Known about the structure:
single chain; 196 residues; alpha/beta; TIM Barrel; two-stranded antiparallel ribbon; 6 helices; 9 strands
Amino acid sequence: MMTAKHLQDRTELxxxxxxxxxxxxxFKVEEGPELVNAVKTAINHGYRSIDTAAIYGxxxxxxxxxxxxxxxxxxxxxDLFVTSKVWNEDLGYxxxxxxxxxxxxxxxxxxxxxxxxxxxxxxRYKEAWRxxxxxxxxxxxxxxxxxxxxxxxxxxxxxxxEIMPMVNQVEYHPRLTQKELHSFCKAHGIQxxxxx
Length: 196
């Protein structure tokens, strides 16, 4: 097992995309100068992964922070790994495609590095997954995955999926070790990513 030694170390997803081990998440950070400054400062201090979501309501500020951070750090967009997530209300094929376009527009980006289904809403996530597969096949996103999925959700998704999720972002820390889920993801080539 590889352990990150530097802020910019990366792990390789099963499709060959290299994802930074560490990143800044902006859950509960409101739109405004504080958000823009936090993202910009993180980039200037070496962070290369930025994680947001439609439901956070702050994609515009994240986008502005990215633009300022790239300029100040003198790096290109390709040096960053940007993640966003489709919210529960937008799960469905057409709705998910539209949500992706809306997130890109708010962020001011041409594409995302990782797009996730935020929660496994029963009866809705399979159509959303088909949309993520379509975006991936069209080269609109570099990697696709899920968030907050447990083993039974992953098994259900994988029955019909053409493409296996590259990432499962879950609550994962010393007080919630999720050992079975971690083992399942590892056995299926799904990178477990901790959101806390």
